[in-house]
Amino acid sequence: MLEAMGNYIQAVWHSTLMTRLVHAILAAAVFEALILLSRSWLTKAFKRVLARDLHRDATMRVLRRRVVLGVPLLLRQGILIATGLLVMLRYLGFQTGAELVPVGLALVLIGLVAFRNALADAAAGYLIIYDDLFSVGDRITVGDTTGEVVQMGLRATQLLTPDGRHVTLPNRRVRGVTNHTRAKTEGAQSNR
User: Fold this and answer.
1) Euclidean distance between CA atoms 66 and 82, whole angstroms
2) Class of the domain covering 135-190
3) pTM for this model (two decimals)
4) pLDDT tens digits, one per residue of 123-177
5) Mean pLDDT across the chain, nearest whole number?
6) What does the alpha-carbon distance between residue 57 and residue 55 come to, in Å, rounded to a whole number?
7) Given 15, 111, 122, 144, which is the most exposed site by the fewest CB atoms within 10 A?
8) Residues carrying CATH 2.30.30.60, the chain
9) Which residues make Cβ contacts (< 8 Å) with residue 49, sequence separation at least 6?
10) Max CA pair span of the chain
């Protein structure tokens, strides 16, 4: 094993190492430019969605912006970095297709299976915040539970019921929401 590794390092060292390093650095620069350009594009794409909450207080606007724009930016950056690393390793002479890609795909699949409920909660929480169904301070009804939203996150929503109980609802189970606060506000605005 060590002898094979030593032979590999010698072969790379005696080959066109400088050319390979230059190619790897250029690939890294291209992927960094793609990260910057795609950030600008995503920010423009979500501008209209984020403009919906200009009437809210600054704290809720920042929270919504972090989630609505932050999640796609994080996913995009992870995908581009992983692809860039594979390309750079390929330029340096590693056989990425035969060894790394199947292992990476297996790890992703295991992660999806192991964390499916957490991922379902996160996806549902993202859509709740993206669609702006309710926010902290709103009085809502979900199923047979009515209360004021005291905390929102990607995984769960916490309600304070009229009898003083704190109820935590996993976001994947938040369906059929009635927002009593917005119904009153929208009705008052339409009567003007």
Assistant:
1) 23
2) mainly beta
3) 0.70
4) 999 999 888 889 888 999 998 899 999 999 899 999 999 999 999 999 999 988 9
5) 83
6) 7
7) 144
8) 135-190
9) 68, 130
10) 83
